[in-house]
Design a protein that fits this description.
The complex is a heterodimer. Chain A is elongated and about 65 Å long. The C terminus of chain A is likely disordered. Chain A has five helices and no strands. In chain A, helix 1 packs antiparallel against helix 2, helix 1 runs antiparallel to helix 5 and helix 2 runs parallel beside helix 5. By secondary structure, chain A is mainly α. By secondary structure, chain B is mostly helical. Chain B is about 80% helix and about 0% strand. Chain B is globular. The chains are: A mainly alpha, B mainly alpha. Chains A and B meet through helix 1, helix 2, helix 3, helix 4 and helix 5 of A and helix 2, helix 3, helix 4, helix 13 and helix 14 of B.
Chain lengths: ~170, ~425
């Protein structure tokens, strides 16, 4: 069961990272079209600002789980070598569980906010892209990050943790 | 319990959590959330969590972070960084200490493509340390030059440090980028002067490098033309008002990708690697920034910024004395704290004091980022030193710290220069065309 969960979570983490990376490449192209359109044709791409906002959400939250799986979160390791292996294990587990709690919290509040956005029909300024779907996206990616962190805690405690590799061939 | 005491306990708890290796973003989130829950209500804390997360994550200006990081990553993959070093090497490599100076100049050039000091040190370290070893350079000098040169990454635009500062203090990213240009070049020159001085008084530290003929010099310089074009377009575009920072970042990233594919130095695989690296780095920075927006309301509710401000303003040391105290605080904190965490923790406290004293916020931003740079090479944390150690594993860590010491002193000289002559910092942003 644990192995099944781990394999599927890792697949989802990889897919979410690919979505984030595609959003970044997509936004480069979008802004280039906007700049070229504005300066060469006098016709900027309408709503680029809105697209940038939404792409940034996907870039950040799409890679949150990957950041944890690659141990890329910034931490101060000044005293790491002074601590015993047991204490380091406890601190690693505490850090991950804190992270998981935060992301579950973000997911929960974001679902609430999305409901309000639907009720008030909130959207972006120019293209009128509804806000709620992106709040649900943040919630979904946050749940994935939280689950991935909890799974890693279990694997760390079982001594079976490993850092995720995400080369394209892994997909 | 007074609000100030709760705030003080919160700051203390944050420092403890950071020293206990809790990831910076999570520690700030946790303290901010608990603090707001205590000083306001848990409901308010949850509301903030939702609103601040969405607001920061959808701030369109922040797209410059992944775009510039992507530009730097692709520039590394396509060998542009190597070409920068080759150009500097061709021109000044043959003089005494020239290889170390070329490394610093290469770092400065690469810094204009990439907003990360760590990336600058890593990339230039890979390119130059072996070369300096080949010509019997002192390992202390060679590794010191790379570690210190790498720090130019967060001073010379595009700089992630400036973006974070701009968002935390609501300043113009474009003005901050321009404000970093001249101080970055001045610091680079100070580093080169220091290398030349060391090579002059102790010639065995930096033997003379190989002479290059005119043809080799021309070839080296020609190789750097594409990079120069990208730098001129992005920084020049912002200065002339032709591009916003976001547009400049996208144009820069687009150009290096196009260059990579045109010269066949970039493949879909390496583009994927660059993009994945960019989103990972972006997210680590952005999580800290989102967390900062949870911490700031807690600090405001605790009245700590007001209390510290009143205390500082009450000191009989004059505005420059207060500025000195603040900068000293950054230098001390920089020895122990990660740079962005330090910015997030201190900006709500010190920034109102700085503006109340009538100092220019853009000028102060450059001073703060410079102190962050010093933290990158200060013992015991000094992340750039550890990065260089990973590239030069045979050089003891202590030797690298000794090697960076002269450059650290040059940074102090630079701070003194920028305090005495603010126009070094403010000339470009004040003349920016908007």
């Amino acid at each position: 069961m644990l192995r099944f969960l781990q394999v599927w979570t890792d697949h989802l983490v990889r897919v979410s990272a690919v979505i984030a990376a595609l959003a970044l490449v997509g936004i480069v192209i979008t802004i280039l079209f906007d700049v070229a359109g504005r300066n060469l044709l006098g016709a900027p791409l309408r709503g680029t600002q809105d697209l940038v906002q939404m792409a940034l959400i996907i870039i950040i939250f799409g890679s949150v789980a990957l950041v944890d799986r690659k141990d890329a979160n910034v931490a101060v390791d000044l005293l790491e070598h002074q601590f015993s292996p047991g204490l380091n294990l406890i601190l690693t587990v505490t850090g991950r569980l804190t992270g998981a709690l935060i992301f579950f919290g973000i997911a929960w509040t974001m679902v609430d906010s999305a409901a309000i956005s639907v009720m008030l029909n909130l959207s972006t300024n120019i293209l009128n892209i509804p806000k709620a779907p992106f709040q649900y996206i943040i919630a979904a990616f946050s749940v994935l990050a939280g689950v991935s962190m909890v799974l890693r805690v279990i694997l760390i405690l079982l001594g079976r943790d490993r850092v995720l590799d995400t080369l394209p061939g892994d997909l | 319990m007074s609000n100030e005491l709760i705030g003080g306990l919160g700051v203390l708890a944050l420092l403890v959590l950071l020293l206990l290796r809790i990831p910076v973003a999570f520690a700030i989130f946790a303290v901010g959330f608990v603090g707001v829950s205590v000083l306001a209500s848990p409901g308010d804390a949850f509301s903030l969590l939702a609103s601040e997360t969405y607001t920061v994550a959808s701030n369109a200006e922040l797209i410059v972070i992944p775009l510039f990081i992507l530009m730097g990553n692709v520039a590394t993959e396509t060998g542009m960084s190597r070409k920068l070093y080759d150009a500097a090497y061709a021109v000044i490599g043959s003089i005494r200490g020239g290889l170390a100076s070329a490394t610093v100049v290469g770092c400065a050039g690469f810094s204009a493509l990439c907003g990360s000091s760590v990336a600058s040190a890593l990339t230039m370290g890979r390119v130059s340390i072996g070369e300096m070893e080949r010509f019997n350079y002192s390992p202390k000098l060679s590794t010191g030059a790379v570690a210190a040169g790498g720090t130019l990454g967060i001073l010379i635009p595009p700089s992630t440090g400036f973006v974070i500062y701009a968002i935390l203090t609501q300043q113009s990213i474009g003005k901050l980028f321009l404000a970093g240009v001249v101080p970055g070049l001045v610091l680079m020159t100070l580093f080169v002067l220091m290398i030349t001085f060391l090579a002059f008084i102790k010639p065995q530290l930096a033997p003379q490098g190989p002479k290059t003929n005119l043809q080799e010099k021309a070839r080296g310089l020609l190789g750097a033309i594409p990079i120069t074009v990208v730098i001129m377009l992005t920084i020049g575009g912002i200065y002339s008002g032709f591009f916003s920072p976001v547009e400049a970042a996208a144009v820069g990233a687009g150009l290096v990708i196009a260059y990579g594919f045109a010269t066949r130095t970039l493949t879909p695989g390496t583009l994927w690697r660059s993009t994945r690296g960019a989103v990972i780095t972006t997210t680590t920075v952005m999580l800290i920034l989102i967390a900062a927006h949870m911490l700031n309301p807690f600090l405001a509710l605790s009245h700590i910024p007001t209390a510290v401000g009143e205390m500082l303003m009450g000191l009989d040391v004059g505005p420059y004395g207060i500025l000195l105290l603040i900068l000293l605080t950054y230098l001390v904190l920089g020895c122990f704290l990660e740079g962005f965490a330090m910015l997030v923790l201190t900006m709500p406290i010190f920034f109102p004091v700085i503006t109340a004293l009538g100092f220019d916020p853009i000028w102060f931003g450059v001073l703060v980022v410079l102190t962050l740079e010093m933290g990158l090479i200060s013992p015991p944390v000094g992340i750039n030193v550890f990065i260089v150690k990973s590239v030069a594993p045979k050089v003891p860590l202590g030797d690298i710290f000794i090697g960076v010491a002269p450059f650290w002193l040059m940074m102090l000289v630079a701070i003194a220069l920028y305090v005495m002559f603010p126009q070094i910092v403010l000339f470009l942003p004040n003349n920016m065309i908007t």
